[in-house]
Design a protein that fits this description.
It contains 5 helices and no strands. By secondary structure, it is mostly helical.
Length: 194
Amino acid sequence: MADDTRQPALSAGTAAQPFEQPTKPKTKYELPQSQVGKLWEAFGNPEEPVNMLPTASGKKPNDVSVTEAMKSMSLSNAGSFYKTPCARDSLLLGIGAGFGVGGVRGVLGGMRSIWSACNWAVGIFAITSLASYEFCQRRRIQELDGMKQAVELMKELKVKKQREKEQQAAEAARLAEEEKKRKSWTHLPNYKFW
């Protein structure tokens, strides 16, 4: 007879171990998440208490000096700058604008204005990249504010629905009690004298 290949063969000295499912390999890309899951991830669970304690240094989080900010930077962070939100789009927009303006100035000015065209290209790249990055960050902050308001409205709606369910249950209980009382033999208006 053929052995069952799903279970490992047991030797005389080993105990039976339960069959373990192999773990799923991590996917290269994150799987899509529902909108509610994204809200919980962005803002956390509203039922969990928020940590309002000061930082370890005793300073408020807003009291950060330039030297502390420089100490927090590292080469690995600088190497992964493009992964931050809005950075890729703003860099691409800046590169395109710089190339366009520098190219036009270089073509129209000829060989004598190559350095000027390069300076214009770098300047336009820097200004466009910074402006589009700030615009994108402002838009993200507005979106986060809108999501916070949506979470608050969803919480209020949940409380309102719960309150309505409680009122309906209380009304149903009251009506059942009245019906029971109306059908009861101890209720005096049920008796008719004629």
